[in-house]
C-alpha cells in the first residue's frame, strides 16, 4: 500500500490552494494561519517540491502545486459525496419543499437542476401553496414565501431578497406605434392583475405619481406567474418582482418599461421546519439556495 501524506496536511493544502489564501484557509478550517503554513511546509518537505510561491503579500501556486491541487480537490469532493451517500443509506431521502408558485416557476425550477446534479441522492418534492404555514401538522421541511412584517421567532428564517415591483411587458410594448414613455401612458394600456396580489398596481401607481391611470378593467389572473406569462405574450403590462424576472429581462423575453422600482412591505424568506433543522437534505439545500441567491444578487440588474 502506498504511503499517503497526513490527512490534516492535505486538507490544509486543499483549502489554501482552492482559496488561493492561507488566511481564508485558516478561517475555513478554524485553524491559525501559521498552522496552515506549517502543514503546507510539511507537505513540501515530504515531497521535496515547492507547492507555493511566497511573497510578503500573497501566495500563489507553483505549476506543480496547481496540478496537485486539481487532483486533491477532486479527491476531497469524492470523499464528501461518499460521506453524504453513507449518511443517507438505508433510509428514504426525501426533501419536501413548499414555495409560492411564482417563485417556483420563475426562479427556483430553472435552477433546481444544479442542485440535483450535485445531490443526486436527494429526492426533491416541490409543491406550491399560499395557505398559512403549518409545520406542526405537515411534513414540509422548508417553505419559501414572502412575508410582511416580523417573522416567527421560533422558526429559522433566512432572508433571500426584498420584494420590489417593476412594470414589464413584451418587446411589442416598447416598439408600438404609441410606445409607453411614462407611467401615465399606462392609461392606454391593458393592465395585467394578479388576484393573489390585487393591491400591487394601486401601490405602484401611487408611488410613481400616476394616479390618473384607472385600475378597473384589464385582465386578471390567479397568480403573478400567469400575469408574467401573459405579459411575455404581449397581452399587456404586468407588475413583476424584479428579482424573479432577471433572466427574462436579460434574454429579452420581458422588457422593463420604466426605471421606477417600488419596494413592498414583503420580504422573501426560506423558512425551515423546527422538526427538520439539521436534517442533511435540508441543510444541503439551504446552503445551495443561499449560495445561488448570493450569486444572483451580485449580478448587475438588467435594464
If you had to describe this structure to a student in words, what would you say it looks like?
With 303 residues, the protein is an alpha/beta fold. The protein is 42% helix and 21% strand. Strands 3, 4, 5, 6, 7, 8, 9, 10 and 11 form a 9-stranded mixed beta sheet that branches. The mean pLDDT is 88.
Q: State the secondary-structure class.
A: alpha/beta
- What about the largest sheet? 9 strands, mixed
Q: What are the secondary-structure elements, in order, as H or E? A: HHHEEHEHEEEHEHEHEHEEH
Distance between the termini: 60 Å
Average pLDDT figure? 88
User: How much helical structure, as a percent, in the residues?
Assistant: 40-55%
Instruction: Tell me what the CATH architecture of the largest domain is.
Output: 3-Layer(aba) Sandwich
Share in β-strands: 15-25%
Count of domain modules: 3
State the total count of DSSP E strands: 11
C-alpha geometry: elongated
Q: Which parts are unreliable, with pLDDT below 50 for 5 consecutive residues or more?
A: none
Helical run tally: 10
Determine the CATH topology of the largest domain: D-Maltodextrin-Binding Protein, domain 2
Q: What is the CATH class name of the largest domain?
A: Alpha Beta
State the fourth-level CATH superfamily of the largest domain.
Periplasmic binding protein-like II
InterPro entries: LysR-type_TF_proteobact-type, LysR_HTH_N, LysR_subst-bd, WH-like_DNA-bd_sf, WH_DNA-bd_sf
GO molecular function: DNA-binding transcription factor activity; sequence-specific DNA binding
Protein name: HTH lysR-type domain-containing protein
Domain HTH lysR-type: 5-62
